[in-house]
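Exercise 3.2. Students should predict the tertiary structure of the chain below and write it as C-alpha cells, then compare their answer with the key that follows.

Predict this chain's 3D structure.
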Amino acid sequence: MSDAPRPARPSFDAALAIIREQSASLGVETVGLLDALHRVTAGDGIAASDYPRFDAAAMDGFAFAAADTVGATPKQPAHLPIAGSVRAGISPTTHAPRTACRISTGAPVPAGCDYVLPHEEARIEQGALVLDRPLLPGRNVRRRGEDAAAGARVLSPGTRVTPEIIGALACYGVAALDVARQPSITLLPTGDELLVPPSVERPAAIFDANSVMLTALLRAQGIEPRRALPVSDDVAQLERAIAAASDSAIVVTTGGASGGDHDHLGRALARLGARVHFHGVRMRPGKPLLFATLPNGTLFFGLPGNPVAALLGARFFLGAALRVMSGLPPECGETVEIDTDRRPDTTLFLKASRDAAGAIRILADQRSHTLRPLIEANCWVVADTTSDGERRRVYPLT
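Answer key:
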C-alpha cells in the first residue's frame, strides 16, 4: 500500500455526496425505440399518432347508431337490417341509416355508428338486429385519441424505459427517443485466486463471480460493460491494467482494496497519479471501498472482493454516479420503523425480505461472503446509529 495518508473515512451519505459531486451528465443521444429499453429519457416523449387511430370496435358484434333505437320497447322493438361487415384493418364503406353491420374487434366503426352490441347479446330475426330498448351511444367503442392524441406529451424526462412503456409508445407511433448517454464501463477483477475458466488443476482457486454479477447488474440498466480478465496481485500488472482500462468513463475493480499484504490497489493508483477521494467508508459490509478519479477524469471504483460487499458497492456507490449521468435524482430510500443491530457511527447494510403487506424481516445470515440469502432477499435495510439518533431506511435489492 502507499505510505501516503488515507483520506478520512466518510459516512455512507457523505461518500455518496462526494461521488455525486465528481460525476456529470454525458449528454443526450437519440436511439430507436427498442434500444431505449432500461435507458433514461432525456426529453419529453411525444405521441406521433392518435391512439386509437380511429373510432374502433372494442369487441366482435354489431355496429349501429344508438339514435336508431329511440322509442324501442319490447312490444315495439327497433329492427335494423344487417348490411355488410367490417373487418380489422379494412376501411368501412358508407353506412346506411337505420341499419347495422357486423364488426370485428379493432375494426374501424363506420361513420354514423356509435354503438357496438356484442354477438352474445344480439337477437337476430329475418336478417335484422332486434333491439327492444333505447340505447345510449358509446358502448364498446374505443374513441380516436382517447388514450393519446397526436402531439400529446406522454412521457417525462428522467423516466427509466420499461417494456410496458415501449409497448405504449409503439402504439402511439413513436419510433425513437432522446435518452441520456451512458458511460462506458470496464470491470476489472483482481486476485491470484480467481479462476477463469474453471479448472480442476487449481483446487484452491475460486470462480470470478463478482464481475459476472456486476455485469448482470449493469445489463439490467441497459449498460453493457467491458469485462476484463482477472489481474494478479502484482502492483505493476495492476497499474498497467487500470491504465489500459482508463479509456472507459468508469473503471471498477473488485478485490485488492483492503490493507493486506497483497492488496496493491492504493499503490497502483498512486503510481498512476490518481486522486483518491476516499478509501474506506464507515459501513459494513464494504468498509474498504475506494473512490478516485484518474488523471484523465475517468471515475474509479475499487470495490471489496467479498461478493456481498462488491454488490453493495456497485448497487449504491457506482449507482450514485450512474444516476447523475442519467439525470436521475439521488436515491433516498424509505424511512421505516424496525429494530435492527446497532453499531455506533457505522452504517449497517442488512439483507431483508419485505412481504406484500409491507412487513420487513431481517434475514439471519448477514455475512459478507454468503449470497444464498440474497436469493430470498428483495430489499436492503440500511441502519445508521449516530449521536444524532437512529435511522432505518429500506431500498430495493438492486
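Discussion points: The chain has a mean pLDDT of 93. The chain has four domains: 12-26+182-326, 32-51+146-180, 56-142, 334-396.
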